Amino acid sequence: MSEARESGGAPKKAPMREVLAEAAFQLFLERGFERTTVDDIVARAGVGRRSFFRYFPSKEDAVFPDHESCLADMTAFLGAASDERDAVDVVCDGARIVLRLYAANPEFSVQRYRLTREVPGLRTYELSVVRRYERTLAGYLRRRWDGAADGALRAEVVAASVVAAHNNGLRTWLRSGGTGDAEVAVDHALELVRHVWGETNGAASAGPDEDVVVMVASKGAPMWRVLQQVESALRND
Fold it and tell me: DSSP characters for 104-130?
């Protein structure tokens, strides 16, 4: 890949956030996450400690430097989506923004996936990031289905389904080493969500001659239990 250059021909410096993230990740791979300190990272990057904490609150944040901007892109996409579109289609397309983030740099994405599998603290951090995406999708769906019967519940269930399907397809691709087309596995998984929950395919558009599955879940029930009950009802209908 050719270097970007200033108008005078000199190589253009990468943004400090990228410099710090790259230095951190190199050290994590070389020494291990736990053995790498912030001092090690800033020494590798050639800057002071203040520079690190200006961009990253912790080492964990340096492993996921691109998710804040990705979340902002998803939020903007959902905010600009037409209410004429199928709401489930919209959130599926919103999830694909995350897919494109990973697919843009397969080598880094695969290395990060392997690192998070090895470090429990990073896995926990990753789950918190995933939960933020899920809340963003659910918030959009709650607005779209405001006033509908079980609209808030359906928003939570569909958002969780979209995230679960997206992550299943994405991790299949990551486990393969980032080979092939990442969109194939993710699109296949999201199509299942669209088939079950889509407004033009699922219960939201069911007519009088169509079967509709209605279930009740306690407010405090974990989302995995709700999804399990839904799947069981669909299989046994």
Answer: TSHHHHHHHHHHHHH-HHHHHHHHHHH
pLDDT at position 224 is 58
pLDDT in tens, 22-70: 999 999 999 999 999 999 999 999 999 999 999 999 999 999 988 999 9
Residue 48 CA: distances (Å) to CA of 40, 53, 55, 150, 213:
10, 9, 12, 52, 59
Within a 13 Å sphere around the CA of 56, how many CA atoms are in the beta-carbon half?
Answer: 25
Three-class SS of the chain: CCCCECCCCCECCCCHHHHHHHHHHHHHHHHCCCCCCHHHHHHHHCCCHHHHHHHCCCHHHHHCCCHHHHHHHHHHHHHHCCCCCCHHHHHHHHHHHHHHHHHCCHHHHHHHHHHHHHCHHHHHHHHHHHHHHHHHHHHHHHHHCCCCCCHHHHHHHHHHHHHHHHHHHHHHHHHCCCCCCHHHHHHHHHHHHHHHHCCCCCHHHCCCCCCCCCCCCCCCCCHHHHHHHHHHHHHHC
Total-model pTM: 0.76
Residue ranges and CATH numbers for the domains of the chain are 16-61 (1.10.10.60), 66-204 (1.10.357.10)
Torsion of CA 176, 178, 183, 185, to 10 degrees: 10
